[in-house]
Specification:
The chain is an alpha+beta fold. Helices cover 32% and strands 27% of the residues. The chain is built from four helices and four strands. It has a four-stranded antiparallel sheet with strand order 2-3-1-4.
Amino acid sequence: MPYVDGFVVPVPRKKLDDYRKMARKAGKVWIEHGALEFKECVAEDVHVGKRTSFPRSVKLKPDEVVIFSYIVFRNRAARDKVNKKVLEDPRLAEMMSGKDAPFDLKRMIYGGFETLVDLK
């Protein structure tokens, strides 16, 4: 079954184009190194929940949007191999440092997930 890395990040609306450029560049590198899919999605129909929600999870500010991202890999071993190559890729070295990121890295939520159901 496929393995998925998932991310939720807050991005200032004024930096959405910068984020898109960064994501396109990163996505091409991940795919080149073996990821099966790379998706970056901007929240369009999310609401602040009473207890929890995407906006609450990242402490969303009024001038920000939520980005939900995921990368699909063949399996966990493939993910580990691909991510190692990506982290070593000089094209992404500056981005990986985080100093010029178009979002607050401290509020990013991420993790790796085993697929439970995969329907197509």
